Amino acid sequence: QVQLVESGGGLVQAGGSLRLSCAASGNIFAVNDMGWYRQAPGRQRELVATITSGGQTNYADSVKGRFTISRDNAKNTVYVQMNSLKPEDTADYYCNAQVRNRITRTLLNYWGQGTQVTVSS
Predict the structure, then answer these.
(1) CA distances for 68 relative to 36, 87, 92, angstroms
(2) 87 phi/psi in degrees, rounded to 5
(3) What pLDDT score does 82 carry?
(4) How many angstroms separate the CA atoms of 95 and 38, rounded?
(5) Which of 65, 71, 61, 86 is nearest to 34 (CA)?
(6) Angle (CA) 88 91 94, round 5°
(7) Strand partners, 118
(8) Distance between CA atoms of 14 and 6, rounded to whole angstroms?
């Protein structure tokens, strides 16, 4: 089994910053793409940013220039640095990882439990 544990959410004023972390653990042979998604109340879950194992990144237009995704492959951990936060960034943020199981070598998609980010105006 594989677990994704997120941390770093909270309440911040508009213009402030937060850094989210997500660590993958368990029966891991390799971690491919990792990423962050978010879901605001009454809305569908949407992409925030993704990063490949080689470091290639992809961002939603709404966060380009404000958010930076990074990862530490040795720790199977992905981060997102969120700057210049806006009230519309308020959402539950979910970590996602494509993990190849150490025992079965099966590639599966995993989600974290979510961490809440609230940006006050």
Answers:
(1) 11, 18, 18
(2) -55, -35
(3) 98
(4) 9
(5) 71
(6) 135
(7) 11
(8) 22
Q: Identify the burial level of 85 via C-beta atoms within 10 angstroms of its C-beta, where 0-12 means exposed, 13-18 middle and 19 or more buried.
A: buried
Q: Is the dihedral of CA 91, 9, 49, 15 positive or negative?
A: positive
Q: What is the pLDDT of residues 63-97, one digit of tens each?
A: 999 999 999 999 999 999 999 999 999 999 999 99
Residue 117 exposed, middle or buried by CB count within 10 Å (0-12, 13-18, 19+): buried
Q: State the pairing for strand pair 107-111/115-120.
A: unpaired
User: What is the per-residue burial (b if ≥16 Cβ within 10 Å, else e) of 16-30?
Assistant: eebebbbbbeeebee
